[in-house]
Amino acid sequence: MKRLISLAAVSTLAAISLTACSSTNTVVPNSHVTIAEVGSLTSLNADVISASSNKIACDISVLTTQNFYEVDKNGELIANPSFGTVKVVKDAPFTVTYTFGKAAVWSDGSKLDSTDLALAVTAAKNSEFNSIHYGSSLTGASIVGTPNAGDSSITLQFEKPIADWKTALDVTVPAHIVGKFAEIGGNVAAVRAGVISAIVEKKADVLAKLATGYTEAFKPSASPENFLANGAYAFTDVSATKLVLKAQRDYRGLHSGIAETVNVLTFEDNASAYKTVGAGKADVFAPQVTLNEPQADLVSQSQGLSTKAITVLAPGSSLSEQFVLNLGAGNFADSSYSDPKIALTLRQAFLNVVPKARAIDFASMTQTVSKSDSFVYSSSSKNYSAVASSNGSSNFILQDAEKASELVAGLKLSKTPTIRVLFDSDNPAAVAEWTLLSDHAASSGFRLSNVSTPDPSVKLATGEYEVYLGPLPLLGVGTGSVQALANGPAKMPESTFNALTKEVFSATDKNLGSSLQTLDKQLFELGYGLPMYQLPTLLVYNNRIQGFSADPFGNNSTWGYWTWHVSTDK
User: Fold this and answer.
1) Are 163 and 37 in contact (CB under 8 A)?
2) pTM higher than 0.90 for the full model?
3) Is residue 65 a contact partner of residue 255, using CB atoms and an 8 Å limit?
4) How many CB atoms lie within 10 A of CB 192?
5) pLDDT, position 534
6) Is residue 13 scored above 50 in pLDDT?
7) ∠ at Cα 389 (386, 391), nearest 5°?
8) Which of 145, 276, 372, 558 could lock onto 320 through a cystine, CB 3.0 to 4.6 A?
C-alpha cells in the first residue's frame, strides 16, 4: 500500500491555491524563510519515486514549477492560463491538447515546449523512468501525430475518457537537461530535437539513457546548471543537506514569492529537525510519520515546541482512513453470483460491522482527527456539509453486528462467507481497527480472515482480499482521484466505473460539484466502502512569519508561500 499512499501524497503535496496574477514587486528585499525537511534528498525531480526524498522534492517543486491547473483550498480545480491551457478536442476517442502559455519559461531563458510534455508522457509509460505517474491514466495515453521540438503544444489520445484530464500531465524537469545527460549533443534546440527523435523513433539505447537521466541529472551532486525552474523561485545553491532558492524578479506567472530567499535544510530524523526549529534556526517544519515515530509521538513533540515564538497546526489532509470493498472478485463481487443483489446485500451487511465510531474514538486518543462522512470532500470544503448530510453515510455510524447477521441470514447462503481483510501490518491504526472489527466477527454472519502484510501491494495487485483497510485519497480533490475507483483497491469493473463516472466526466466547471455529490451518494448505495476519519498532518512554524496558511490537503511545508508576511533581515 505504500505506493498508493505515495501517489496520493504526491498528488496533494502539489496542490496550490491560486489567486490573481501577481507581480514580483511583492518580494521583500533581504528577507528569508528557512524550511526543515526530513529525509535523504536523492533527486530534485518530483516525478521520481523515492520513499525518503519524494516529499522534499515535491515541497521544493511547489516553489520552482507551475502546473496547468492547481487545487484551491476547497479541493476545486483552478486554471493557470498564464502557464498554459488544456482542452478536450475530441470525445471519442478521448483526445486532449495541452498548450503552454507565455509564462512557461525555464530559468535559463528557454521556453517549455512539446519536448518537455513528450518526455513526461514517455516517463509515465515506461517503468524504467520510475515516474510516480506510471500506472496512472497517463500510462495508457498516446501522442497524436509527430511532435516537433519548439511546438508549444502536444495532443494526447487516451484509451477511454478519464476524470483527471486537466491534471494528468505535468512537467517537473527540463527535457533538454535530461537530453544532455543522455549525451545528445548540440545547443538547446538540437538537444530537444534529439529527445523528440528518440521518443518518436523508439530508440531503445537513447531512451535508456533518458530514463537514467530523469533521476541522475537532478541529484544534488549534479552540475548546478541542471537545476532549472519555471516558477516563482530559482535554484542558486544545491547540496544534499542544504538548498538555497531565490525569488525570480522577472517572474510573470502566478504567485510571486514574498521571501527573497528560501533555505531548505535536510535532516536524518524528526528529532534533529525539531531541535533546529526549537533553536530558532529553522522557521517551518512538517514532521514525517515513521514506524519508529508514530503520529502520537510527533504530536507530543510538536506540542512541546508550542510557545509564544512557535505555532503548531494540525490541519486535515486529502487522505482519509477507509474500508474499501473489492468489487472485482471474491465474496463482495456481483460477478460471483447469479443474482447481483446477493453481493450488494453482503456489502451492505459488512458495512454495518465496520466500527466507525469506535475507531474514531481510538484514533482521537493520540491525535486530532475529524470524522469523514464523504468519499469525495474534505471536512474543510465548503461542499462537505451538503454532501455528508445527503449521501447516506448516516446509515453506518455505529457498529451493528445484529443487523449485519440478519441481512446475511436472509440470503440463505450454503456457507458462511469468508471475508479476507487486507491492511498494512506496520500501520498501528489499521491494526487497531482490525481488532475492533474482529471483536464482533462471530455474531456478524461473516467469518473474518486477517491477510495483512507489511507490503500490501502484491495482494492489492492480485485481488486476493475482500476488504482493504487503510488511507486513501478523497475523490474530489482536483477530481483526479476519481480515477482511483478503477485502478484502486475496489477493483471496480469497467462497466460499473463508466456508469458511476459518466456524469463527472461530462460535467462543466459549473455543475461538477453536483456531479461529485451524486457520485458520493451512489458509492454509499453501491456498498463501495466506508470513510472513517481524515488523516491529520502536523505543521510547526516560527511566528516571525505572519499570514501563514497550512495546506488543507497535506503536510506540504511550502504551500501558501505567496501569503507569507516576512520582514527584511536585520
Assistant:
1) no
2) no
3) no
4) 26
5) 87
6) no
7) 95
8) 372
